[in-house]
Amino acid sequence: MQLKPLPQDSQDKLKADRINKEAFPPWERNSLDDLYGSDSPEKLDMLGIYDDADMITGWYSFYDDTEFTIACSQRNFDKDGFEKFIGCLGTIISDHIPHPYRK
């Protein structure tokens, strides 16, 4: 697993849009373009979650040091994958580690 910056104008961002649509119902979904277009773009970290074959499988956003969102393309929750993700994330953003929850 790798975390890499996800530029708004990249092909992977278009894939992340599809993942976003799959991961959230319409009433809970925020547009990724809205996140990118926030009033404080310097406060937004948008990272792609990549598998070992360098394919984007999800995205992670962290806004204003307080809010985060994770979306992935897997139907079932992968706890081992999530733990691997937060381990990788901890090397980038050490002071904010997300915890899983389900609705």
Verbal overview:
- This protein is α+β, with helices and mostly antiparallel strands and 103 residues long.
- Strand 3 and strand 4 form a beta hairpin.
- The longest helix has 13 residues.
Give the helices and strands, then pairings.
Layout: E1 2-5, H1 11-23, H2 32-36, E2 44-50, E3 56-63, E4 67-72, H3 79-90
Antiparallel strand pairs: 1-2, 2-3, 3-4
Concise summary:
This protein is about 30% helix and about 25% strand. With about 100 residues, the protein is α+β, with helices and mostly antiparallel strands. The longest helix has 13 residues.
Mean pLDDT: 76
**What does the radius of gyration come to?**
13 Å
Order of helices and strands: EHHEEEH
Largest sheet: 4 strands, antiparallel
Work out the helicity level: 25-40%
Helix and strand composition category: alpha+beta
Shape: globular
Total of helices: 3
- What's the number of extended β-strand segments? 4
Residue stretches low in confidence (pLDDT < 50, at least 5 long) are none
- Oligomeric state of the chains in view: single chain
Strand percent estimate: 15-25%
Taking the alpha carbons of the first and last residues, their distance comes to: 26 Å
Question: Which short descriptors sum up this protein?
Answer:
3 helices, globular, 103 residues, four-stranded antiparallel beta sheet, alpha+beta
